[in-house]
Specification:
382 residues, alpha/beta, nine-stranded mixed sheet, 13 helices, 21% strand, binds ligand LLH, binds magnesium ion, Mandelate_racemase_C, Mandelate_racemase_N_dom, metal-binding, magnesium
Length: 382
Amino acid sequence: MIITDVEVRVFRTTTRRHSDSAGHAHPGPAHQVQQAMLTLRSEDGHEGHSFTAPEIVRPHVIDKFVKKVLIGQDHRDRERLWHDLAHWQRGSAAQLTDRTLAVVDCALWDLAGRSLGQPVHKLIGAYRDKVLAYGSIMCGDELEGGLATPEDYGRFAETLVKRGYKGIKLHTWMPPVSWAPDVKMDLKACAAVREAVGPDIRLMIDAFHWYTRTDALELGRGLEKLGFDWIEEPMDEQSMSSYKWLADNLDIPVIGPESAAGKHWHRAEWVRQGACDILRTGVNDVGGITPAIKTMRMAEAFGMDCEVHGNTAMNLHVVAASKNCRWYERGLLHPFLEYDDGHDYLKSLSDPMDRDGFVHVPDRPGLGEDIDFDFIENNRVG
Ligand SMILES: O=C(O)[C@H](O)[C@@H](O)[C@@H](O)C(=O)NO
Ligand SMILES: [Mg+2]
């Protein structure tokens, strides 16, 4: 059970996803990017793996923090190891981020699952083995036939319903799109989707993240007329009081925070302040599966749903181990991309969705990622 080794393997992978100046993804030509796989080994020969961007597990972070905390420790002590690593953050000069905590925590959960031959959600205490997904559409763009007009969104939404999705979330247009942001265009896209899919498909929006209170209010009031289920991140989440003001002035549920720092502690303050109607967590956003589960359980104690941000196996296991969330966020999706093609370094999807819109948790041990170790070795960098 003792951790004897921490290894990072950086490898090339091909993707058609490109990030814009705000960090949002859009389709583009296939290109190679680098990905990292963190591996933890225990003395009894078991391994746990998790994936992240290479800079999150760069040598300085691994040598100065991760190895110091993990080597020689019992890998089953995830709660203590999470706190031990988190306590290094304050003095790390902002070098040890929540993303690093997340990838280490995920590798520990994967190690536990692989060593016991059990999927992670069963170790946490499963609530279900399948969950409805909503199709999370990429931010709008200016690509001909892409997501450039409200009609484009409507057409794409019809495609998603035919694929089986029972819920759809729109990320609308944001800079660097030349004319964005624009509340009225956001509402036109939402209206086009509602018109296209009818009244029974659940709809949500994730809008420009820096609207003013009055813009967000106008957007929310328009969504209420369209029967949307929630409004997400329409303002800077650093202003909790703005979200309390919005939640007090809208009937449509306000969900958050997604990107705000502070892990489960800060999310407790959002609940206490009434800054949201639905809480939000995400393994990468709060520093791991361990704090994500704490956030879920805290929301439950307040009678609140807590929806999980993001796809991938780590988030799927949090959803599968929780009663108080309704969806798995499957995406990000675009008319020019085939999400079900997956990744070249995984032999199969971690979140396969059936024709009825249910994502089934793989019953493979650990996080259940079907890793192509030969591909990773053959595409190692350095
Ligand atoms: O790039 C991002 O910020 C994320 O992909 C984000 O857009 C998306 O995952 C999201 O907000 N989901 O709710
Ligand atoms: Mg979001």
